[in-house]
Amino acid sequence: MGGLASALCFARRGFKHIDVYETASNLGFVGAGIQLAPNMLRILDRLGCWEGSQLQREATMVLETKIVDGPTNTELVQVDLSDVQSKYGYPHCTGHRASLAGGLYEACQKEAGVTFHFGTSLIRVDSFGPGKPKFTVKPRDGDEKTLETDVLIGADGIKSALRYAMLRELKIDAEVEDTGQACYRIMLPREQMEPFPELLALLDAKCAMRWIGEKRHIVAYPISGHTIYNLSTCQPDTNFAAATNATYTTKGDKSAMKKVYDDFCPLVQQMLDMVPEGEVCEWRLRSHKVLSQWTLGSATLLGDACHPTLPHMAQGAAMAIEDAAVLAEVVSLTPGAGTDPEALAKSLRAYELLRKETTWNRVEMAAFSGRTLHLGEGKAKAERDQQFAMAREKGAPVPDKWASPEVQQAIYSHDCMKEAAEKFSELYSSLT
């Protein structure tokens, strides 16, 4: 998402030579549901990827969220989201990751300045400067090529090759580490749910559900025009304990998945029963410590490459797309029209300053929400449930940060591009 958005943002800013290197032989869009928050839609709309798009046509507007106790199906709190569009200019929606990525890719293909190089891997960074960064790539069926560029952007995710190269150069240790959590992603088609009125009601509702229990929870919502019910789980990472698999995914076992949630309510059990044998896949959730620096010379990182997050705030893709928008904004404002490597390096440091606190605040809130949602019996859980009760009766803050109105206000109203335009000159001038 971050790489596609970067290419498109730079193209829309008038840059003419944008090369995108992708290890896969094609983008092959897959994945499951994704939450489309207003701060993301604001950027997509400016890129021409929202209003009137296929993504918008297929999107499901979310008008409420409910957090319920997993074992008993007892509602803990309901949060009304019907005023989100009037407050922030855009609704809160859900969609399919393939539609989002496909829309960005289609828009990139219409830009003459964007060239995709599929089946091509970054082998090494030969120089971070002074001067232009130099790097070596290798096509899958070709010879290595050493290239140079004005700006080198690592939008290559949690396993970022550019991050590893940058940290080696800076002698910084920030290895990827396990979070102790993993997730299943499940999509149930409408035809499976139609015979069951209670399940069909979930699919037809404009509601995001969260069933919570000790060390586990499930988020669920309709996507693709209410034709698919998307479930994303989070549970202790046990299946990867002895694995060395670099993909962070493993073929799951349906019986093992059901055992993890065997004390959850019959409604959840019924949906897990519908998952076809052999189609259970589990993702390991990984992270790394806060980076003290994610820019070196005219090279920089964005998205999961520099601030990977747990999914509990539904802001991972949104942050990557915001990063892309801010990055293109500050580079376009660089004195000298990008001809001076030192000026570009200062602009990239300004980008980092604009984004670092914002992104890591959201990363921390996601981790906090995970800890709060997963409490077992005891005093802390009793206090949390009392907070849920107060939120239900008095409109107080919700312990689940994603659903809490004051947190939504801070995130959904944030216009990262406007902030970049307003603060760039001052930040740029302050840097040496």
CATH level-1 class of the largest domain:
Alpha Beta
User: Judging from the principal axes of the Cα atoms, what is the shape?
Assistant: globular
How much helicity do the residues have? 25-40%
Task: Tell me the CATH architecture of the largest domain.
Answer: 3-Layer(bba) Sandwich
Mean of residue pLDDT values: 92
Class per helix and strand makeup = alpha+beta
| Domains, number | 2
Number of helices: 15
Termini gap: 32 Å
Low-pLDDT runs of 5+ residues are none
Question: What is the CATH topology descriptor of the largest domain?
Answer: FAD/NAD(P)-binding domain
CATH homology group of the largest domain: FAD/NAD(P)-binding domain
Largest sheet: 8 strands, mixed
Assess the beta-strand content as a share of residues: 15-25%
What's the alpha carbon Rg, rounded to whole Å? 22 Å
Number of strands: 19
Strand order of the largest sheet: 5-4-13-14-15-12-17-16
Organism: Apiospora aurea
Family: Belongs to the paxM FAD-dependent monooxygenase family.
Pathway: Secondary metabolite biosynthesis
Domain FAD-binding: 3-331
Description:
This protein has 432 residues and is an alpha+beta fold. It has 2 domains: 287 residues, FAD/NAD(P)-binding domain, CATH 3.50.50; 110 residues, D-Amino Acid Oxidase, Chain A, domain 2, CATH 3.30.9.30. The chain has 15 helices and 19 strands. An 8-stranded mixed sheet has the order 5-4-13-14-15-12-17-16. It has a 3-stranded antiparallel sheet with strand order 2-6-3. A 3-stranded antiparallel sheet has the order 8-9-10. A hairpin with a 2-residue loop joins strand 18 and strand 19. The longest helix has 33 residues. The radius of gyration is 22 Å and the shape is globular. The two termini are 32 Å apart.
